[in-house]
Write a structure and sequence with these properties.
This protein is α/β, with parallel strands linked by helices. The protein has 4 helices and 10 strands, in the order ααβββββαββββαβ. The strands form 2 sheets. It has an 8-stranded mixed sheet with strand order 3-2-1-10-5-6-7-9, with helices on one face. The radius of gyration is 16 Å and the shape is globular.
């Protein structure tokens, strides 16, 4: 599907197709080259998803998690479905609700870092995903049909990102295949606070 035809791909069709493909492994954007990226971040249709988890949504101190705040720090708390940010000088603290991976086998924990920042990320399914879902477009430009939202932070782990979403129902739920999602207004704010090299810890 060329770019001209990709604009005709409906949001409803994409959501239905992605729900049908939940059994397959998720692949997201490889940060080795922005022009040659194969990317898939399929997310579940959350119409009947479990309720949001807000019981553990509380402010945290950075000291139990990081030895310092060099380049600033991001903590993703999978259990409470929240993302915490501390600036390098310790003066700025942000707490955002997030979406998290649907299952434990899709969840990765540990230390990584921001290696690339993108405004208006585009989306490309891998060739193997197109074989499984031939109705999908080969390319989705930035915009309301893009599953990556308005901004994305690429991590040093290949195929993992923190990104926005146009589907606000996903936030606070187990709804992704690996990435961490934020409301678009929150990922834009986080994008402006972070830099390449920002520390990231998922627990």
């Amino acid at each position: 599907m060329d770019r001209k035809n990709s604009g005709k791909f409906s949001r409803r069709a994409f959501m239905a197709a992605s729900a049908a493909a939940l059994g397959a492994p998720a692949f997201s954007q490889d940060v080795t080259g922005i022009d040659t990226i194969d990317t898939v971040e399929m997310e579940k249709d959350v119409t009947h998803a479990v309720p949001r988890n807000i019981s553990g949504f509380r402010a945290l101190d950075w000291k139990p998690y990081f030895s310092n705040l060099k380049n600033s720090a991001i903590l993703v708390d999978i259990s409470s479905r929240a993302l915490h940010f501390w600036s390098e000088d310790g003066e700025t603290y942000k707490l955002y609700p997030s979406s998290i991976p649907m299952t434990e086998d899709l969840t990765r924990r540990g230390r990584t870092r921001v290696v690339q920042k993108v405004v208006g990320p585009d989306w490309r399914p891998t060739p193997s995903m197109l074989k499984l879902n031939p109705e999908w477009p080969a390319y989705v430009p930035p915009g309301p049909d893009n599953p990556l939202g308005t901004h994305a932070l690429y991590l040093s782990w290949t195929y993992y990102r923190i990104h926005g979403t146009h589907d606000t129902r996903k936030i606070g739920r187990r709804s992704s295949n690996g990435c961490i999602g934020l409301y678009n207004e929150h990922i834009e704010e986080l994008y402006n606070h972070t830099k390449v090299g920002t520390q990231v810890l998922l627990v």
